[in-house]
Model the fold of this input.
Amino acid sequence: MRSALLQSSGRPGSTVENLKVLDEAAGRAAAAGAGLLVTPEMFLTGYAIGDDIARLAEPADGECADAIAETATRHGLAVVYGYPERDGDAVFNSAQLISADGTRLANYRKTHLFGCFERDHFTPGEQQVVQADLEGLRVGLLICYDVEFPENVRAHALAGTDLLVVPTAQMHPFQFVAESMIPVRAFENQMYVAYVNRVGREGEFEFVGLSTLAGPDGVARTRAGRGDELVLADVDPVFLAASREANPYLTDRRPGLYGTLV
Done:
């Protein structure tokens, strides 16, 4: 499955403009043969928008979800997008997967909130592994800081995730996560990892780009630069199966030794 990573911060504070950016990127991705388009964390609204997060938050089945489903259907590709999700009085930092026929397949709420900004504006999610099947692959969802906890990625590996999709808002000076950690996570868990970042300065944050799709051999299949960019790479289930056979980390585990971890 060819995957397209949309590295962009869009227009913070305007869901209307960000839906336009997503639609244009979906057209380019589909023309290049992509079956999946992934946006960064909080792409729908912007990240560093303060109290506008709560104002712009909407349910997982809200109007913007319907608009993105229409975009996915019209262009014939699945979409993962980051957004603030409202559920009653709670607001979650969420990512949703919508299929090419407009079906909402999976919705994930960020479980590990980063810093005071996120803890002030979001409620942490409680479900560690969220997955859906897409074009013969099992796709899992995490968001940004979540992937920096090895327990989260290993839980996905044990649950059979083939492609871990990680919308992110990775900021300076932590670019080593995209450069070094993501390929290692892919290798040690024998999966593909798509890590899709914001760019430029937004409020107090400077996002570093470097969106990456890494393979189970620890090699980046594509890596963006520091500006707005749409990059593409293939997720190959045949290569994944061969890599898992050659690198049996999951079958060589000894869980009985790991009790002290929890």
Summary: Residues 15-31 form the longest helix (17 residues). The chain is about 30% helix and 30% strand. The two ends are 36 Å apart (CA to CA).
